[in-house]
Input
Amino acid sequence: MLQEITSTDTGCLTINVGPQHPSTHGVLHLVITLSGETILRVDPHLGYIHRSIEKMCESLSYRQFIYVTSRMDYLSSHINNHGCALCVEQALQIEVPPRAQVIRVLMDELTRMASHVLWWGAMAMDVGAITPFFHAFRERELINEIMEETCGARLTMNYMVPGGVMFDLHPNFQKRVKDFIPFFKSKLDEYDELLTHNIIFKQRTQHIGVLSREDAISYGVTGPTARASGWACDVRKRVPYECYDRLRFEEVVEQAGDCYARYLVRMGEMRQSLSLVEQLIDNIPQGDFQAKTKAVLKLPKGEFYSRVETARGEFGVYIVSEGGTTPYRIKFRSPGFSNLSALDHMARGHKIGDLVAIMGSLDLVIPDIDR
Amino acid sequence: MWSIEQIIGALNQWLQHTLGNVGAAIAAYILLGIFVILFFSVLGLVLVYMERKVSAWMQVRLGPNRVGPKGLLQTLADTLKLMSKEGLTPAGADRFLFNLAPVLMIVVSMLLLAPVAFARNVQIWDLNIGVLYVSAISSVSVLAVLIAGWSSNNKYSLLGAMRSGAQIVSYELSAGFAILTVAVLSGSLQVSQIIESQQTGWWIFRGHLPVWVATVVYLIAVTAETNRAPFDLAEAESELTAGFHTEYSGMKFALFFLAEYANVFIASAIGATLFLGGWMPLHIGNWEAFNRVMDWIPSSIWFLAKTFFLIFVIMWFRWTFPRLRIDQLLELEWKYLLPIGLVNLILATAIAVLGWHF
Amino acid sequence: MTLRNYLRNIFQGLRSLWTGMRRTGYYFVHHKEIITQQYPDEPPRLAERFRGEVVMPHNESNEHRCTGCTACELACPNGTIKIITKYEVTPEGKKKKALDQFIYHLELCTLCNLCIVACPTDAIKMSQAFEHSVLDRRELIKILNKPGSRLMDGVE
Amino acid sequence: MNEPQTAVDWEAVVAHAPVPVQLISGTPWPELHVEAPNWPDLAQFLRTAPELQLDYLFCLTCVDWKTHLTMVYHLNHSRQERVVVVKSQLDRDQPQIASVAGIWRTAEFHEREVFEMFGVQFLGHPDLRLLILPEGWEGRNPLRKDYEDPVNMIRL
Output
């Protein structure tokens, strides 16, 4: 017999989007309440890949805990590691050699580009265009190969160590990056042809999921998502770390706050990252790639907080130290978690198709949310 | 030079000779049935392979290249895989309707094959309201989609089916107007006569602006009617996982899959018939030598070439564009395609009445 | 919405769609742009620093450089390495700690490279082998020092 | 972001605060210690006081000190760098504090996380349910120091 399809007295339909769903990019579980196709409420259920990294870190030494953070936001794992290394360096007052600083920034920006390129493909796939996804992977593969050559890994690099980086740059690095820059520039123009100016894409993203500046701040939304709402919140500009204060780059800010604005901000950031890499690639100072540090790191008693700008927003590392070799408590302020919290606010009143576009434009990475 | 027309004629004669009139008619129907089933199978294999290659090349990939030479047997392998898979029926599904839907879908596609003219004088049923018949029968497929979505007892399926209902019913109109444009110009609804009217030149060359517009409108409308991207809202992979056929597996899924490609083929075939002259070869004015060469190419090749060109265009749409949203889809229909189609029809009527076409 | 705007919208929309179609059409006919690597046929291009698994190089006379100091075991964040030491008697008659078994759990390893960095004698390194799939998990527990191998002379 | 950064006189802020607050300087960022019942008033003050307007709560967490819990709030201004850390001690057996989800909406999710990880009850929270942990987890708080994971592959 045909069972009655679940409906409440209000005529609302409750649907599980996820944990396995093509557009949640991982195991995110959203319980959405619909009236027809219109979304009344989005209720995220998290924790499907919660590994309690914060608890794990409490039993790892200050050299060891960095690698775990690659497993949070795996698309900007390098920047996560950077944040952790910065926090330890700040606590121990280690001076990072200039060469290491430049290498770190170069790697950060390459990571940001790789992350945004993948986001571009995934966003296109969310709104139904499949071809851009493959084109995006073509460019991402080149960045990954550059990473692999120097860091030895493609995704979870673990290249940062307190005091610098693990190895020196590979001799081929400069040449390969220089080859990559003009190639990527031409491909960015192709991206514009395929999506940016496409009328269907514009229709799907303009005026969708509008987040005002005040709401963005209140929800603690950071990164490109907040900059699309007109909030200049780039940590690289606010509290420059490493050598960002000596570099010229624009903070891409849009005012509309919709999905298309978020799209434009990320496209702009790819170009900015490219210009940062261009500025640095010929100006890598000679010298050490790592400061001299003790074999066993002991942080002084106290609390330390460092902030970096990942591809998704502000990533904070909060270490509470009791003076031992392991952190007493560690808290990762992951950008995805706060960004996700605004999803309900943004998606209400839109259609299911819009929810997918909004999630795509938020650039959610689920391990980053769950930690 | 033998043609399909002659082969069929010879076959018919031989049948009548051996079986008598009644027997020949029965045998002809049986052969026809076998032909349609075979044709569908081959069509599925060819079109799936084509789609995979087209998408692969557009996506800087190689596409299937492992099974058989150049991967030609890939779709055959896939079919075998689908056949050997278990056909699940979800708990709480309406078993009868659930099993009926894919069959209905494929039957509708098969019915649509009737008025398609494959070559000179090769047509299963040349009824005098051919294009109207296509227009009418093709809307029955929405019933299959609705049944599939409803009987699956799955909310995603239901949403997909509801979307599909709104979509197919609306786009039916625009496709109808586009078809009417040509019907007005050629003065007939019969497929063979429409083709005959393009003896001196295909409508896309002779009909100026109205036919160009009608061609574009027709292509958009049939893309929507066959549930293909960018109008694949009923399936909407990134939103509804697989929409109305989420719960189908094995051969039942294969039938939906096959029906989609069959519908694309038929829509393109009708499009080729209406705008590109069906099996009619390309003739240019008084270039006798050129026209002779064109005539030498068999009419079935002409028909298939035009049809596959249109299929390619529809695939090209799919692998380039993002998907529309349901309200935008309806907006496109009611705010753009329908008014344009109407104005276009009036224009075409004026041209037909005044005899301004070439 | 004036008729002019209406028509302009249509025209601009169609043009933007055509731009995209031209791009995919370009790739459709330019097969030299295809980037597929056919993996088992084409061997993958791996960087020399690629981290596949931890190995312990031995020289021709079956000697390794591991003194069994357990620096790697301590550096490992997730207990991948287990070192079992034994006491050997040197020719001078002294008892000396030496490596008995270097047990490496590939199934736990995250390939973070911290053990390699920690090793004072460069006894272990990363290999580029990446095809690790086996049918039984136990096969991933490896003993890195070869049977009968001993410490290279001159390594302290 | 180009407007000049203005320094905040935290001594004066503490003097003006509507509730008793203890200021601790010398740490990287100034810290305000407040009694849990006074927190909502202070939060409102920090958010609305014209010279502060700390509208950006960028980190909210809790630390288990075995004898008590400490709530830690990191606040900042959206344009100026005015970071202040607010801390409040909670009783470990009956941890209770007012929710600030009405002032900073990001607190809604962060408080839910702290609720399940540390068992802190947030009074006046709009929707205090489990967020990360599976349903029926009640009672055990994973990030407290006395929590032992029954499934632990690697013992260090």
Remarks:
- Chain A has a mean pLDDT of 86.
- The CA atoms of residues 317 and 332 of chain A lie 5 Å apart.
- Residues 51-370 of chain A form a domain with the Cytochrome-c3 Hydrogenase; chain B fold (CATH 1.10.645.10).
